[in-house]
Specification:
Elements (H helix, E strand, L loop, with lengths): L4 H11 L4 E7 L2 E6 H18 L6 E5 L4 H12 L3 E5 L9 H6 L4 E4 L2 H10 L8 E4 L13 E3 H14 L3 H8 L5 E6 L9 E5 H14 L7 E3 L7 H14 L2 E4 L6 H8 L3 E3 L2 H16 L3 H22 L5 H23 L6 E4 L6 H9 L4 E5 L9 E2 L12 E2 L3 E5 L4 E6 L5 E2 L3 H7 L6 E9 L5 E6 L4 E2 L9 E2 L1 H9 L4 E7 L6 E7 L1 H10 L7 H5 L2 H19 L9 E6 L19 H7 L1 H9 L3 E9 L5 E12 L11
Parallel strand pairs: 1-11, 3-4, 3-5, 5-6, 6-7, 10-11, 12-13, 13-14, 25-26
Antiparallel strand pairs: 1-2, 8-9, 9-19, 14-15, 15-16, 17-18, 18-20, 20-21, 22-23, 24-25, 26-28, 27-28
Helix pairs in contact: 1-2, 1-3, 2-3, 2-6, 8-9, 12-13, 12-14
């Protein structure tokens, strides 16, 4: 698209000024903002930032949840030819130091007091950081630091400037070009410092339009924006495609009200990583376990009906008269109310991405009538590389290349991508750029995969993570840790998994229980516990985990390629893996190498066959305090199975 984000804003404001652009829930009431109102706010903020000294090409960090004035701030920054850099609002203060200094940031726009405090904490280490603007003034009345001001004050100053320079804003917007830098996103940094991924207006809008055309999105869509704006996925769905299509973006009141807000809005277009869908399913299963015996029996019966006919029905296949009758009854009694309870009663298209989703989890949602599909992409590709057509959604592929994308697989099995949505480069990192972008325009994804006979892309794992077992009965067998981890994470009682096996004679895993799900399970069995650590080490919980592990082993035994990846031993960790402790990225991806070093004593104990191991771990609390958690962890063996087709 030969345009820019601010130019699209002005087009919507001119063509449909009174149409709703954004909604924000405040004090339990949804407040709407029209395209004309939004354009006025953006104009005032842009003029205010110009007066404050923001220059073309400068970087401005934006930190906070999805809020209309933060969206307006990004548009205002782009209107002046500057570059917004969204950062994760849940990051600790020290995580901001590198991106702020790397991008030589002078200006910051933040949501509230929490973010102000974090930036003031690191200000002494960030020589350029001079101006901090906040949206929510609560708690900030007595703050007197230099350069600290509210967006409301900036807005008023900008209005005054605009009165005396009526053509300034429109002239600035018109002077921007599609190939100008539009935004920079810092990668999650599973190893080393994060890298700034530079995108232009053209690269982001090209992919946004390709995705919109693929699923016939229009200005009538409703979207709930609840994931961090710093994540490229949320940014594409609630910013790039929002301005491309002109639909309505709804901002929930808080993270705690998302489920309620989801039901109130009833989005037609929905996006979430697998972890969110896992959490929803866990909640459903917990509620059903607390239901009466009759309700559980009805639910189980109709879920069997859904599994038998639901996916085929979603794929447009005939399910026969009997299947239609049973599914229709199930839809009236179970599936319809369940979709409504989840907030999916109006969803036309739902996507998941970021991590592989378990086949049972994927099929559950499609079975109950939700058009859940997978897509494939990354920050560097502006998300949209592959998408699944409505009637070709399968759990083991990520779809077909969408418009404008070429894919090839290298001799080493790595997926390479070429499209107009590729990054311009990594900021101040030409070496890293050269490692991923070839001279003829191909991007190295670092994902291992292949194109199947139907033209769909199948991702196995990260290239660097796909390994081989060495020694023992499975010597030379392929080991794909993420595949094993995702199969275990389907179970509602398991929240996180870290699998090891490359270069070793067997596969071992460390588990996190889902505290809510296992806590509910324990309470129904009158099993007392005193917190996560105590519950995780209960013999009964280990038996529950063993059953899950052995079910996964039975499934793996049926896969000729990955039968050797069956789990031999496991343990349940004494604490939940946490981004604040460095164990997960801000997008909740496991930092497998870091965890292996941090818990080396546990990894060694698993492979040495020890029955028990003491561990003490430092932890960081949300208020900044530090402490430690210790426990004697049990280590348990699991049954493995002969590959299907081989003698036991």
């Amino acid at each position: 698209m030969n345009t820019t984000f601010p130019q699209l804003l002005l087009e919507h404001a001119a063509r449909r000024p009174m149409a709703t652009a954004l909604r924000e829930k405040e004090y339990g009431i949804w407040q709407s903002q029209t395209w004309a109102d939004l354009a006025d706010v953006v104009k005032s903020l842009a003029c205010g930032l110009h007066q404050a000294g923001l220059q073309r090409g400068e970087h401005v960090i934006v930190v906070g949840s999805n809020r209309p004035r933060l969206y307006a701030s990004m548009l205002a920054v782009q209107s002046l030819g500057a570059v917004p850099v969204p950062l994760y609002q849940d990051a600790v203060a020290t995580e901001y130091i590198f991106p702020v200094n790397n991008a030589e940031v002078r200006f910051a726009v933040v949501e509230n007091q929490e973010q102000v405090d974090k930036l003031l904490e690191i200000r002494a280490e960030c020589a350029h950081l001079a101006n901090i603007y906040f949206d929510d003034p609560r708690g900030l009345r007595n703050y007197q630091q230099d350069g600290l001001a509210s967006l409301s004050d900036l807005h008023i100053q900008g209005q005054e400037f605009a009165k005396h320079h009526p053509d300034f804003f429109e002239t600035q917007v018109a002077s921007n070009q599609a190939d100008d830098v539009a935004a920079m996103f810092f990668t999650s940094g599973t190893t080393g410092n994060p890298k700034g991924v530079v995108h232009t207006h053209r690269s982001l809008l090209d992919r946004a339009k390709a995705g919109a055309d693929f699923d016939h999105l229009s200005e009538s869509e409703e979207v709930l924006a609840y994931m961090p704006p710093a994540w490229i996925g949320q940014n594409i769905f609630s910013y790039a495609q929002w301005l491309c299509c002109g639909y309505v973006v709804n901002c929930p009141e808080s993270a705690a009200t998302v489920n309620i807000d989801l039901k109130e809005i009833g989005p037609t277009y929905y996006f979430a990583p697998p972890r969110v869908f896992e959490g929803m399913l866990t909640t459903v299963m917990i509620r059903m376990e607390d239901a009466s015996r009759f309700k559980r029996a009805v639910f189980a019966f109709f879920m069997d009906v859904a599994k038998r006919w639901g996916p085929a029905r979603m794929d447009g296949q005939s399910i026969g008269l009997w299947g239609q009758l049973l599914y229709g009854l199930g839809n009236m009694l179970i599936y319809g109310p369940l979709r409504n309870n989840l907030g999916f009663s109006r969803v036309r298209v739902a996507y998941t991405a970021g991590e592989a989703i378990g086949p049972d989890l994927f099929n559950f949602y499609r079975a109950i009538g939700i058009n859940l599909k997978q897509l494939y992409g990354s920050t560097e590709t502006a998300v949209f590389v592959c998408l699944q057509p409505d009637h070709e959604a399968r759990s083991d592929t990520v779809g077909i290349p969408c418009a404008g994308v070429e894919i090839k697989v290298s001799a080493q099995g790595e997926v390479l991508v070429k499209s107009a949505g590729l990054l311009k480069g990594y900021y101040k990192n030409p070496q890293a750029t050269a490692e991923v972008l070839t001279a003829d325009g191909w991007y190295h994804t670092n994902d291992a995969g292949f194109i199947d006979s139907h033209g769909h892309l199948k991702i196995i794992d990260r290239v660097k993570d796909v390994g081989r077992l060495k020694g023992g009965a499975n010597d030379g067998a392929m080991f794909a840790p993420k595949y094993v981890e995702n199969k275990l994470k389907f179970f509602p009682h398991i929240k996180e998994v870290v699998a090891y096996g490359d270069g070793r004679d067997k596969v071992c895993v460390m588990l996190n229980i889902d505290f809510e799900a296992v806590g509910n399970w324990a309470e129904r069995r009158n099993l007392p516990y005193a917190g996560y650590t105590d519950l995780a080490q209960k013999p009964q919980v280990y038996q529950l985990m063993l059953e899950c592990v052995e079910k996964v082993n039975a499934d793996l035994a049926a896969d000729a390629l990955l039968a050797g990846s069956q789990i031999n031993r496991f343990l349940v960790l004494h604490k939940e893996l946490d981004a604040d402790d460095g164990e997960l990225t801000r997008t909740n991806k496991v930092r497998r190498g870091f965890i292996a070093e941090k818990y080396a004593v546990l990894v060694d104990a698993l492979y040495q066959g020890l029955p028990e191991q003491f561990i003490e771990t430092a932890v960081k609390f949300e208020d900044g305090r530090t402490g430690s958690v210790s426990a004697h962890l049990r280590l348990m063996d699991a049954r493995t199975y002969a590959p299907v087709g081989h003698a036991a």
